[in-house]
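[Q] Does anyone have a clean structure-token version of this?
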Amino acid sequence: MRRFLYDTAVFVYALGRDHPLREPCRTIVAQAARGELRGEASADLIQELAHQRHRRTGDRRAAAAAARDAAALCMVHDVTRDDALLGLDLFRAHEGLDARDGVFAAVAIRRSIGVILTSDRAFDAIPELERIDPADAASVAALALR
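[A] Here you go.
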């Protein structure tokens, strides 16, 4: 399997309302649950997913459960001071990248994870990362084959 970092959006779309990325993201989550994909994540993904789910549903228990379930599907990396500082540098350098995504990118870069699974095109500006869109079934399948 090829190493990759999940963006929170994969889980958000999989759990969310009807959207063009809902089914591709549900497929990815199902593949991860079967052990066919083994992505990695920033610890920030866990809290971001819980926050997003609680904001959408108002259900704290379900939000916490969804975040724990997502964490169980990933190798989770702690966020260090150096990750945060590199994330700020990336945020400053790339206009379309928000601060949180800068930290996600930093976690990937500092751990030599060259791929991020996300629909967010802001990551395209970071030369150290290859972005794979969840809707690109062939590219997602290639993550499992290596």
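[Q] Thanks! Anything notable?
[A] The first strand starts at residue 5 and ends at 6.
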